[in-house]
Amino acid sequence: MSTAAPAGYDPHAFEPFAVTVDLAVFTVRGGRLHVLLVERGEDPYKGHWALPGGFVLPRESAESAARRELAEETGLTEDTAGALHLEQLRTYSDPDRDPRMRVVSVAYAALVPDLPEPRGGGDAAGARWWDAGALGPLAFDHDRILADAHDRIGAKLEYSCLATAFCPPEFTLGELQQVYETVWGVELDRPNFRRKVLTTPGFVQAVEGSPRRTGGRGKPAALYRAGAATALHPPLLRPEGRST
Amino acid sequence: MSTAAPAGYDPHAFEPFAVTVDLAVFTVRGGRLHVLLVERGEDPYKGHWALPGGFVLPRESAESAARRELAEETGLTEDTAGALHLEQLRTYSDPDRDPRMRVVSVAYAALVPDLPEPRGGGDAAGARWWDAGALGPLAFDHDRILADAHDRIGAKLEYSCLATAFCPPEFTLGELQQVYETVWGVELDRPNFRRKVLTTPGFVQAVEGSPRRTGGRGKPAALYRAGAATALHPPLLRPEGRST
DNA sequence: CACCTTTATAGTCAGAGTGACTATTAAGGA
DNA sequence: TCCTTAATAGTCACTCTGACTATAAAGGTG
């Protein structure tokens, strides 16, 4: 911002950059981490799967663009999508990441509870959830973006209350534990997990009236809602190594 | 990346975005956190101080641009600057953040040991280190970027070995402790800090021959170098609350 | 219906890590 | 020589965690 623009800020005098957003939208389905992908209908990478995303419009911020795309691709209303957790990951700016032109992309990660299969509407040829553990190569540098997103989400679960974003409004501690186990790919000790969650003020709060979820196999579990806290002190560390 | 470009990817057909980098370059001087700022020589914000930065060139990545600007502003060679720790913070894309045109900026944070005052070379009217705790309002949204950078650095000290990046090649544990105290703005217990650092494998390693730094006021301190580890397990948590 | 399986919940116990200390050592300065 | 300063060594209690065992309450099966 300190140097003069090439050719003194004439907006059309230099080779322009396109700015896009890419979204890594995660959910937990049946104990597996899933990610929303769209099938590319045109070259390059025609027929490949890619992260949803699109161009940032002239009068919107990258985050607004991300929320708009998220609403379009998931079929949620913009109001609902506006309430979702959306986290800016990082920006990818390799000069050759798109063979057509110079595209700088701001990547976001979103966490959603289990949603219905997306309608194939919009401009994408098709959109569906994929098991994040069994993916073929994606278009562009989206493998890298997806890996970065997974790392970030995993790290964030350690020191934030973000895991509740994967859960429906009311959930059991077993469901919350499964979020951690699914994202981290490990098994956790149930009593210890329970103790940690319940002794962290504001992580979860019991639903009034102490209802229980019946119909399962074992003893009915108590229901909880997300609490007011956002950070976890001390953190809930993964059994082994780290990321980032 | 899934939607068609406006006007089918004709690079000049839509209003272009400029892409810049902004750098928050931190150092510790005399027990205070300092940040490198440049004085703006032209409107808007003429006479205000701003983060160093500049345009991303057509054939370079944002990170390359950041390293190039860092070398220019600090007077270091590109080789030296290439070895410095540079961390992508986030991207700022508010449509009105620059009154002249649409500028999307990728912000980076850099940590350097105490350096000489920068020469006023390059295109900036002037460049100098400022005490990060006593700053007037900066140009553009740079106050916000600087605050985000400070938060990120503080959080990273907790779970990484990054603090050694603020230190010269050989340093005492007291100097390392002062990095933590300066960035966090707290005082730490010396024996406890020492115990934590020394029992974390790979955080620091004693300089061979066990030399000591004499000339100070008290007992000479042993010298250490940065170790091979990059992550801190378990983390070195701040006395009180959190960030991010 | 008795019994097994499954899941939730309660509780115990030892070890690691940390915060708050006190004590000792080794330099410079008055 | 004594005082001040800073580094280093060590203690102790408390918290948190990992690894357990035990009990409760549902569904399923013969």
Automatic annotation (TrEMBL), chains A, B:
Identify the PROSITE patterns for this entry.
NUDIX, NUDIX_BOX
Nudix hydrolase domain location, by residue? Answer: 16-160
Q: Name one GO molecular function term.
A: hydrolase activity
Origin organism is Streptomyces atratus
Q: What is this protein called?
A: 8-oxo-dGTP diphosphatase
The record's family statement is:
Belongs to the Nudix hydrolase family.
Q: Which UniProt keywords apply?
A: Hydrolase
Superkingdom of origin: Bacteria
